[in-house]
Amino acid sequence: MSGIELQQVSKRFGETLIVDAIDLTIEDGSFTVLLGPSGCGKTTTLNMISGLEEVSAGKILFDGREIQHLPPHKRDVAMVFQSYALYPNRTVRENIAFALKLRKMPADEIQHRVQEAAELLNIKELLGRKPRQLSGGQQQRVALARAIVRRPNVFLLDEPLSNLDAKLRADMRIGLRELQKELGGTFVYVTHDQSEAMSMADQVVVMNGGIVQQDAPPLDLYRRPANRFVAGFVGTPTMNLVTGSLGDDGLFAGDGWSVPTGWSGPSHENVTLGVRPEDVTLSPGTGETSGRVRMVERLGIEAIVVTAFPFGDIVARTDPDTDFDTGADVTMGIRAGKAHLFDSGSGDALPRTEMAKEGRHV
Amino acid sequence: MAAGTRGRLLTRVLRALVVTALLLWVLLPFYFLLLVALTSKSDSLRTPPRWIPTMDFGSFHSIFKSAFSSAPPSNPSDLILPGIQNSAVVAVCVAVLNVVIGSMAGYAFARFRFPGSKFIPGLMLGSQLVPVFALVVPFYVILHSLRLTDSTVGIVIAHLSFTVPFSVWMMRSFFAGIPIEVDRAAMIDGCTRWQVFYRVVLPLARPGIISVGLFSFMVSWNDFLFALVLNSKTDSTLIQPAISGLYNVREQSFGIMAAGTLLAALPTMLLALISQRFLVRGLTSGVGKV
């Protein structure tokens, strides 16, 4: 097993800075997800851990040992690629056994290990086939078997599920988590899909612009986003974000309207208010801050109500049997303690200690 | 319905006619070659020609008889077999070196970024636009000053100079067609760069290797100009100049010329037939969707 540590790691391609001096600690035996939009530097970070990309600056440590200068084959990492990257001219068996053959392992041991990996991933009957004779899901499992057969300390997965259909993807989420429990290695998983990250990770590292935005367990990330980017990136439907200013009475005010946030503390200009759809309360009638319902999506387990307010559209998650209909006049409130406030300039969350216990409706 | 059947019949007849015409166009010269080679000297120039060979092996006999005598070559026809042998050595060297250089350089150009990695392949392709004739004199001067005229090494170098650029270009496009993730997976699996190349990527590029080997063998085998200019000794002559040496003003021996030409064409024909099978199989099984 290996804990992984990145110290001030940067990657530069020519003039472009892809990863900007990040510090990161990945716990031994954890399932850590690097999450971010495309181009955020997450795959580059993974490739630097694997050794496929060299670091431009900084150190990478496995269990306290510096390894950033080592080529991939000396790092004892396994990797699963988005395209699976199976060897097209080799059978499934040869694909899985290749890494062991390179290590000159005795044939009966190879046979045993391949069998074991194939059993674990339920691909025993595919061992004699070539990759092109397999479905996407089967290729994916072969790629996983190829990774686990070596029993490495670190597993790196680069969007391994994004080429699968929705049903298979959901199954594989569970499968991967179980696999990790069974093998016990350190998993580093790259994805742009926040629901994948939330459902699988022990720890989520949100990246954007080559910088770590937040490094926290999934629920912390959801409940206490460190900045406006994380707040907007994690959660579906996304968090409602409105700009305005905060008075010392806790009233968040925009141009000719206001809403109580339940915050107490110093007033603050240039604030962005963030409210998750499930924390928006809507009540019928008109008031100081009223809007008109634009659309109601009844999804069975819930309804999504989109309301046009003077300051923009607000998405609320409500009871599926909600009485609201398109065109209805409603006023908006925020559930107690559920308002998030961010500095509009830096994007950073305002310190939570300022939050009071009570929230009120308009 | 009757009209439809008749239409279909017409198409088939037309198709058969076109195919027959094409076949005749390609094969008739060969048949005539065979005819002349297997006809006695007196019969070979008759008008109208005899369409059935007399099965006279005299021409082949005079080519082969020198192979079993220890006497030094006295006739131009005595140089056919040594010429084939010399050409085989040269062409095999050229083919092997093209495969080695082409695949290694092609891989580097396809996978690594270094100063000139974009520019040099274009330059190489551009060099193919220069007529080969323009290179004969410079090559003679250079190789002569290096004392490499009249030698196998010299002619191999000359042949490499106009085959390698194409081979590099071709191997580069083959490697570029193999997803880079395959290289990366191999490195993660424990390959060194060199192992990635020869254990993983090279087997995938087999159709390319066969094409490059075949192409360079044929270019080398069929070269006449360099083989003529860069060599003046009879015992190191290549096959193409040896055949042209049969053309003698005093005594026209069409039978021996035809027989020599047939023998010279045999290796490339066999090679094409054999490698064609590998080429087709390679193309269907190699670089597929990964």
Explain the overall architecture.
The complex is a heterodimer of chains A (362) and B (290). By secondary structure, chain A is of the alpha+beta class. Chain A folds into 2 domains: 4-225, 3-Layer(aba) Sandwich (Rossmann fold); 237-343, OB fold (Dihydrolipoamide Acetyltransferase, E2P). Helix content of chain A is 23%, strand content 34%. Chain A has helices at residues 42-50, 92-102, 107-120, 136-148, 166-183, 194-200, 218-223, 228-233, and strands spanning 4-13, 16-26, 31-35, 57-62, 65-66, 77-80, 154-158, 186-191, 203-208, 211-216, 240-246, 251-254, 257-260, 268-275, 280-284, 290-298, 303-309, 312-318, 329-334, 340-343. In chain A, the strands form 4 sheets. A 6-stranded mixed beta sheet of chain A has the order 6-7-8-3-9-10, sandwiched between helices. Chain A has a 5-stranded antiparallel beta sheet with strand order 13-12-11-14-20. In chain A, α2 (92-102) crosses α3, α2 runs parallel beside α4 and α3 (107-120) packs across α4. The longest helix of chain A has 18 residues, at 166-183. The radius of gyration of chain A is 25 Å and the shape is elongated. The N and C termini of chain A lie far apart (54 Å). Chain B is mainly alpha-helical. Chain B folds into 2 domains: 2-67; 77-248 and 257-283, Orthogonal Bundle (MetI-like fold), CATH 1.10.3720.10. Helices cover 71% and strands 0% of the residues of chain B. Chain B contains 12 helices and no strands. Chain B has helices at 2-37, 58-65, 80-111, 119-127, 133-145, 152-176, 180-189, 193-204, 206-222, 225-229, 239-244, 254-285. In chain B, α2 crosses α12 (254-285) and α6 runs antiparallel to α9 (206-222). The chains are: A alpha+beta (362), B mainly alpha (290). The interface between A and B is medium-sized, with 27 and 22 residues. Chain A: InterPro entries: AAA+_ATPase, ABC_transporter-like_ATP-bd, ABC_transporter-like_CS, ABC_transpr_MalK/UgpC-like, Mo/tungstate-bd_C_term_dom, NA-bd_OB-fold, P-loop_NTPase, Transp-assoc_OB_typ2. Chain A: This is Sugar ABC transporter ATP-binding protein. Chain A: Keywords: ATP-binding, Cell membrane, Membrane, Nucleotide-binding, Translocase, Transport. Chain A: It holds the Pfam family TOBE_2. Chain A: GO terms for molecular function: ABC-type transporter activity; ATP binding; ATP hydrolysis activity.
